[in-house]
UniProtKB/TrEMBL annotation:
GO terms for biological process: chemotaxis. Keywords: CBS domain, Chemotaxis. Coiled coil: none annotated. Residues 17-74, 82-139 form the CBS domain. This is CBS domain-containing protein. Gene3D superfamilies: CBS-domain, CheC-like. InterPro entries: CBS_dom (IPR000644), CBS_dom_sf (IPR046342), CheC-like_sf (IPR028976), CheX-like_dom (IPR028051), Diverse_CBS-Domain (IPR051257). It comes from hydrothermal vent metagenome.
Amino acid sequence: MNPALKEKTVENIGTYMTSPVKTISSESTLRDFLKLLNENSISSLIVHENNENVGIVTKRDFIRKAINQRMDPETTKVSEIMNSPLLTLDRTTPIEEAKVFMVKHKIRHIPVTEDNQTVGMLSLKDTMRKSVDQKLIDAFTKSTLEAVQNFMLEASPLSPSESDDLPGEISAVIKLTDEAKNVEIMIVLNFSEEVARKVYQGLFGDEATSMKDVCNIVTEISNIIAGNVKVEISTMVQEILTLTHSELSNNGANGSFHFDVGLPTTVIGSGHNVSGVEKLSTAKTFIPFENEGNHMFLLGLIFQKKEES
């Protein structure tokens, strides 16, 4: 057996879930749904009908269905956008098994039951909760600030969070890959169209005439960040493998990384998300940057084990 591997204590989802669970009637409106989310600082609700739980509705459902289809929140019922039938997991389910189940079924939230009673809610984020080392955050922050300075953009980093909500309409996505160590780091640089256009105008003196020109600015910044940071993090093997390879022990990482930088891609649209974030063995952090109290852009970092070809 590889000495870098070790047996791990099996943890069940009862220690990861949140409770109590909030519910909403299937007859309630989307306005009621949004109000409950905001009042409780949550992102999902179980839907009940005739004293039975019949589905689940999430903030992402609202964005993808209600907003995109221009549903009226005052008249549209929760039942029109909920996910049904309702999938559940018993609270004794091992956390790794729950993670596989949720990824397989492409769900982000699932009710947790005990003796056929709902006792909690588990999010995919809960199953992947790993803390990104401050050394890594500092390295990416430093490389980002160096990159944006080339575009005459001043910004300061705020505290990182695990929220993967992308507020801007433009995201450039670029990957760092080490084939030998089976590691992939996805860098997501998210800008609002307004800020990106200002950067373009500040750089060239004229307004951008096409969306392609605006996107190219964001893409080029992401390219520079990736090129800068791959050197900065090349020796942070333990810090990265702890995030991507949960089977490695603390003394199972050595050597250095030799990252290849992939070609950047662009995702455009209000309320979009970046595919590939929810792979197994994933850790992520999102760092907002501001200038004089105004949000400028968001840097997302997703660390994951590279899928075998």
